[in-house]
Automatic annotation (TrEMBL):
Keywords: Hydrolase, Metal-binding. GO terms for biological process: carbohydrate metabolic process. One of its GO terms (molecular function) is hydrolase activity, acting on carbon-nitrogen (but not peptide) bonds. Residues 57-231 form the NodB homology domain. GO terms for cellular component: membrane. SUPFAM superfamilies: Glycoside hydrolase/deacetylase (SSF88713). It comes from Lacrimispora saccharolytica (strain ATCC 35040 / DSM 2544 / NRCC 2533 / WM1) (Clostridium saccharolyticum). It comes from the Bacteria. InterPro entries: Glyco_hydro/deAcase_b/a-brl, NODB_dom, Polysacc_deacetylase_ArnD. Signal peptide: none annotated. This is Polysaccharide deacetylase.
Length: 239
């Protein structure tokens, strides 16, 4: 009789435990589903939350003003070693004589975009002149890689929406600027990026400075450990 009483007590406690655990679980799921996604959240917000919480920490490293005869190959080696793809916005006048570097860039799987022919503010140019420069650079890159660039980054981020020659191109700006051209300091640039980066960021760098190349490789090593992956701008924009 004594043993049966104990068994009954045990069973009751056991069943109560199960009921309690189930209730806790259901209320946890309720909170979990409503915590970050308020009813009526638009699709963009839902996507952003999904991106933040799915571990999909993608960012794009972009390099302007190159190629440089020494620092760009150094960067390409570092990226290849790490299995990372980046986006390069090439300056036409710097492509001249460095065709082999551009070919390597393409063969390594990086995305090549257009940064104009010379480093001028496109918004201040005559439409005809600006378009001629963009076209000249597109042709030059296409001659080397066989692919016509589809992405344009105007110098200083300044461009004229009336540039009809760009209607088939996608203008890509940036949202994280460590001002690498100003400090030319590896540690400072790397620290700035690691501190401020968020999933989905397009980071602006210049592969014509050794400090920027070193900083980029340092950032890749640090952020890879934090679960970030590096994609080209087209991959980021498609997502
Ligand atoms: Zn530039």
């Amino acid at each position: 009789m004594k043993i049966r009483w104990k068994t009954a007590c045990f069973l009751v406690v056991f069943i109560l435990d199960i009921i309690f655990a189930k209730t806790m679980y259901l209320s946890y799921m309720d909170v979990k589903n409503s915590l970050f996604l308020p009813a009526g959240a638009d699709e963009e917000a839902v996507d952003e939350v999904r991106r933040q919480f799915s571990g999909d920490k993608q960012i794009a490293l972009t390099f302007d003003d190159g190629p440089h005869s020494v620092y760009t190959p150094r960067l390409l080696d570092g990226l290849r070693k790490r299995g990372v793809h980046a986006t390069f916005f090439l300056l036409g006048e710097n492509v001249e004589g460095k065709e082999a570097i551009v070919k390597q860039m393409d063969e390594d799987g990086h995305l090549i975009g257009n940064h104009g022919y010379s480093h001028v503010q496109m918004s201040k140019e005559l439409v005809g002149t600006a378009c001629q420069q963009i076209e000249q650079n597109n042709r030059k890159i296409e001659e080397i890689t066989g692919v016509r660039p589809q992405y344009l980054r105007p110098p200083y981020g300044s461009w004229n929406e009336e540039l009809e020659c760009t209607t088939n191109m996608t203008v890509v700006l940036w949202n994280l600027d460590p001002l690498d051209w100003k400090s030319k300091n590896t540690k400072k640039v790397a620290r700035y990026i690691v501190k401020h980066v968020e999933p989905g960021d397009i980071i602006l760098l210049h592969d014509v400075y050794p400090s920027s190349v070193e900083a980029a490789l340092e950032v890749i090593d640090t952020l890879t450990k934090q679960g970030y992956t590096f994609v080209t701008v087209d991959e980021l924009l498609i997502d």
